[in-house]
Amino acid sequence: MLGACLLAIDAGNTEIKLGYFADGAGKVRQTWRIATDSRRTSDEYAALFLQLFGNERIAPRDVRSVAIASVVPKLDATLDAACRRSFGVEPSFLEAHRQNLMPVRTEHPAEVGADLIAMAIGGKARYGTPLIVVSYGTATVFMAINDTGEYSGVAIAPGIQISIDALVGRAAKLPQIALDAPQSALGKNTVEALQAGFIFGFVGQSEALIARMRDEMGVRARAVATGGLADVIAPHCPSIERVDPHLSFEGLRLYRESLPG
Question: What is the C-alpha to C-alpha distance for residues 21 and 35, in angstroms, rounded to an integer?
Fold first, then answer.
């Protein structure tokens, strides 16, 4: 069974996430995160993959298939070669307009990020439809899946960490801050003021966009959150019911299992 020995790779602009499926129940056994670095060669990525597997005592030969969602085109050939070298398999690359698990009802389906369609597919499988998936990563992305299971639209905003870096980088006296919610929106010092503005500001953004999407969809769609910073914002959002960090891996697993061979 493909799902029993699959490596799912979600290659983003900031991080490359890896999820290893090693049982028939389709559960992720092990995950890793590494920095995205387009300067690394395929040999360097292969060595890194083998080191990660070795640290967890997972035999690379156990990987029977690899599925990749990449939004970094210049890394695609590098990752392809690294997977062939590390695991001896040819990876399958997910593309929104070349998959048959979810119709994409946008004007240009080829422009939809592979990571986004993977999350949407995974979200639909786990939580049903209609659904709004909110991804808190390099960008904050709101994806709408309608009641017939179609990817019907998306809203994209700057990510949390990018926003912090941009403000701090342009204001010499502002410190870097921990992404912790303060006790009050009325900050009593610079750190609390920044935390209130960022945390509660992104909470307000999330609540407003989810409400507007639900209104335009004509139904109170369930909302779930994913992405590396989901745990920072989602706990403060009444509209978000669940945080699920593995939606892209689940989508990649389902995509690979939909392919012949």
Answer: 21
**Do 11 and 69 contact (CB within 8 A), yes or no?**
yes
| CB atoms inside a 10 Å sphere around CB 85 | 16
Residue 104 is classified by DSSP as: B
State the CATH architecture for 2-93. Answer: 2-Layer Sandwich (3.30)
Note the Cα 161 to chain centre separation in Å: 15
Residue 31, both tokens: 């995950």
Residues with a known catalytic role: 115
- In contact, 143 and 119? CB cutoff 8 Å: yes
For the stretch 27-74, pLDDT in tens is: 899 999 999 999 999 999 999 999 999 999 999 999 999 999 999 999
Contact 143, 101 (CB under 8 A): no
- What are the structural domain ranges in the chain? 2-93, 106-249
3-state secondary structure 142-204: EEEECCCCCEEEEEEEECHHHHHHHHHHHCCCCCCCCCCCCCCCCCCCHHHHHHHHHHHHHHH
What's the predicted TM-score (pTM) here?
A: 0.93
